[in-house]
Design a protein that fits this description.
about 450 residues; Glutamine Phosphoribosylpyrophosphate, subunit 1, domain 1; seven-stranded antiparallel beta sheet; binds adenosine monophosphate
Length: about 450
């Protein structure tokens, strides 16, 4: 998953783009980059790790110009190698272009092979690079037909921002898998994955870029075109953005995420009430549904688990011991609140089940008498091909375990998942979501090769 930002006209575009990355940091922590444009030249800064830690005043000062795009990366295609930090910046026939992409394409193999056979030399191992090769190869006249031809060749999930010939471009695939919001700041426009970015920039939320729409922005002028036939494509907004991924202070897919999660919790309470002394949310992801659950049943809500915000990433090595240590450092249950109590613990979702198991163990060690776990979405049974980094099918705990077997593994006294119908009943635009991770019914053909590292070249480090 990734976060993207674009600015069409601001005297400190690079700085404002950095604020955008700050707000979207949760969408990717592996690396970040900003490209700015001053009317003549592109300027670029890319860093491994968190934007909030690794961009300093000096690096931001290099980002001259009135236009900028930015990207924060969580790899779902390609490794975490430095070559894969976006935005992708290339020059073709003396014209620089820069692009940042959120989502995963599904016809990568076909396009990659075709482009390589035609002589393209790929510099990265990301599907995102396909866009710039297509831009270079597609005969270009006026901007709108050129872009329409390029985006029509690509299938799958993409929300894209692009700096091209003095224009800022935003495009969203016809299914609309990933969000893309349009805002206004001063004379110019802003694009960002989530509306929470506009709040930090003091910008005004205008609307979402529609599925299948391309917006071409030059200064304060915006032209909108739609991909041919996109009105016939079934909209497929990613429901997991609503459940877990997006920030609660964002409005995407026509709804505020905090309110969506509270409604999920309330519906969960209707479907799976529990006899307990109080409701406990697993911070932060479970807290919003926990509030909705507690309010629905008029039960007390306790913040009985405290999150340590200072957990670093770099010193943690991925051994089992240190993974468990990380879980413990991150969340600490308060013994004095939990001891001797019957608790109902709310979590947004279960993927592998391993973190839930450690957290339940912690709550048990803090002295809980009974632990009833409730999950504000259905069991996740199938992988995502559109940009959520779920593990392989075999690692998804619900793929081959029943709810009773999962309860056994996590060691809870009872376990309840929200039903698919219940989940959808609380969504606005409820007919327009992709729920493939729960149902296994994918809204597109499947990619030929599902290996995340499929574009890694042999012989490279
Ligand atoms: P677990 O019990 O190990 O399945 O972890 C569950 C928690 O991790 C929940 O809060 C999930 O929403 C969160 N989570 C979110 N995205 C992912 C992911 N792609 N892979 C694993 N866990 C995730």
């Amino acid at each position: 998953m990734c976060g993207i930002v674009g600015l069409s006209h601001h005297k400190e575009a690079g700085k404002i783009a950095f604020l955008g990355l700050y707000a979207l940091q949760h969408r990717g922590e592996e690396a970040a980059g900003i490209v700015s444009y001053d009317g003549r030249q592109m300027h670029v800064v890319k860093k491994d790790g968190l934007a909030v830690d690794n961009f300093d005043e000096n690096s931001i000062a290099q980002l001259k110009g009135h236009m900028a795009i930015a990207h924060t990366r969580y790899s779902t295609t390609g490794s975490s190698h430095t070559k894969n930090i976006q935005p992708i910046l290339v020059s073709h026939r003396k014209r620089p272009m820069a692009l940042a992409h959120n989502g995963n394409l599904i016809n990568t193999d076909e396009l990659y092979t075709k482009l390589e056979n035609e002589g393209s030399i790929f510099q990265t191992s990301m599907d995102s690079e396909i866009f710039v090769h297509l831009l270079a190869k597609t005969p270009n006249g006026a901007m709108a037909p050129w872009l329409t031809k390029v985006f029509s060749q690509v299938e799958g999930a993409y929300s894209v921002v692009l700096l091209l010939e003095g224009s800022l471009i935003g495009a969203r695939d016809p299914h609309g898998f990933r969000p893309l919001c349009l805002g206004k700041l001063g004379d110019g426009y802003i694009l960002a994955s989530e509306s929470c970015a506009f709040d930090l920039m003091n910008a005004e939320f205008v609307r979402e870029v529609a599925p299948g729409e391309i917006v071409i922005i030059k200064g304060n002028k915006l032209e909108s075109v739609f991909l041919p036939g996109c009105e016939k494509t079934k909209k497929s907004f990613c429901v997991f953005e609503n459940i877990y991924f997006a920030r609660p202070d964002s409005t995407i897919f026509g709804d505020n995420i905090y309110q969506v999660r509270k409604r999920l919790g309330a519906q969960l309470a209707i479907e799976h009430p529990a006899d307990a002394d109080f409701v406990l949310g697993i911070p932060d992801s479970g807290n919003y549904a926990a509030l909705g659950y507690a309010q629905q049943l008029k039960m007390p809500f306790e913040e009985g688990i405290i999150r340590n915000h200072y957990i670093g990433r770099t010193f943690i090595q991925p051994t089992q011991f240190l993974r468990e240590f990380r879980v413990r450092v991150k969340l600490n249950p308060i013994r004095e609140v939990i001891k001797g109590k019957k608790v109902v613990v709310i979590e947004d979702s279960i993927v592998r089940g391993t973190t839930s198991r450690s957290r339940i163990e912690g709550i048990r060690e803090a002295g809980a008498k009974e632990i009833h776990m409730r999950i504000s979405c259905p069991p996740i049974k199938s992988p995502c091909f559109y940009g959520i980094d779920f593990p392989s099918t075999g690692e998804l705990i619900a793929h081959n375990k029943t709810v009773a077997q999962i309860a056994d593994f996590i060691k809870v006294d009872s376990l309840g998942f929200l039903s698919l119908g219940g989940m959808m009943s609380v969504m606005k635009n409820r007919g327009d979501f992709c729920c493939a991770c729960f149902t296994g019914q994918y809204p597109t053909a499947l990619p030929k090769n599902t290996d995340k590292l499929k574009l890694e070249k042999s012989g490279e480090e």
